[in-house]
C-alpha cells in the first residue's frame, strides 16, 4: 500500500494514513487493484496506526480505522485484516521502551480496528520480540484472530532477527503466545526465505505466512521472478502468500497463476 501510494503521488514525508481522508479514491484504487490481481485478503491502510504522533500527524485512530476498513471493504475481498506495524520505539542498541508505552500504543490501535469491524488483526514488520509479544497480547484482548509477521534478515540456513535469534525461534514464540498464524514480510523472495519457512513450518502447527517485497527502489523484481520465489516458499511449507512493498496486481496475478499451474494451494 505505501509504495503504491508513493507511486500515485503521496509526498514521502506524509504517512499513507493521511490520504484516507484527503484522497480516499487513491487508497480505494490500490485495494481494487490488489483484488483484481487475485488477493482474497486485504490489509487496511493503517500500518502506522500505533505511531502516527511520532510522524507528526494528529489523527484520531478510531476515525483512521473506520475510514481504512470502509475503503478496504469497498474492494469486496473475502477478508479484511487490520494492519498495525511496529511502534518505532524499540530500536537496536537503544534502551528498551517501557512495556506500558508499547501496550498503550498498540492497544489503542487494535481496539480502533476491532471497533471498525475487521475480520482479524495483522501485526506486521515486527523487529523486536518483546515488543511483538506485547502487541500480540494487546491484540488478543479484542477476541479477534491475530496474525504476526516479522522482518528478518538473511542468516546461514535461513533468516534471523536483528538480535541474532533464528527466525523460526522468533516466530515460534509468537505462536506459543497465541498467534493464529506467523510469518515473514518485506524480505526478498529468495532461498533465505525458503529456509526460514521450512524451519518454521516444522516447528509450529499454525499457518506460515510469506509476504515478501518486490525489490528495493531501482531494483525491481519482475512479477515472474517474484512468483517463482514465493511459490518455492509455499512448497517449503507456507500456506498464506502475498506481497509487501513494490508488489502490485501483476505480481499477485503471476503468483496465483503459477501456484495454480503447479497445483499448489495457498491463501493469497
Describe the fold and architecture:
The chain has 268 residues and is an alpha/beta fold. The protein has a single domain (2-262), classed as Homocysteine-binding-like domain (TIM Barrel). It is 44% helix and 15% strand. It has helices spanning 2-7, 19-22, 24-36, 61-74, 99-116, 129-140, 167-176, 191-203, 223-235, 249-262; strands at residues 41-43, 79-85, 120-126, 146-150, 153-155, 158-160, 181-185, 208-211, 240-241. Strand 7 (181-185), helix 8 (191-203) and strand 8 (208-211) form a beta-alpha-beta unit. Helix 3 (24-36) crosses helix 4 (61-74), helix 4 crosses helix 5 (99-116) and helix 5 crosses helix 6 (129-140). The longest helix has 18 residues, at 99-116. The protein is globular, with a radius of gyration of 17 Å.
Give me a quick take on this structure:
It is built from 10 helices and 9 strands.
Distance between the termini: 16 Å
Indicate the proportion of strand residues: 5-15%
Shape: globular
Helix proportion range: 40-55%
- Summarize the helix and strand pattern as letters: HHHEHEHEHEEEHEHEHEH
What CATH architecture label applies?
Alpha-Beta Barrel
CATH fold type: TIM Barrel
Write the CATH homologous superfamily. Answer: Homocysteine-binding-like domain
By DSSP (H or I, 4+ residues per run), the number of helices equals: 10
Overall pLDDT = 93
- How many independent structural domains? 1
- How many β-strand stretches? 9
Nearest-angstrom radius of gyration?
A: 17 Å
Reading side by side through the largest sheet, how are the strands ordered?
1-2-3-4-7-8-9
Low-confidence stretches: none
What is the CATH first-level class name? Answer: Alpha Beta
Outline the biggest β-sheet. Answer: 7 strands, parallel
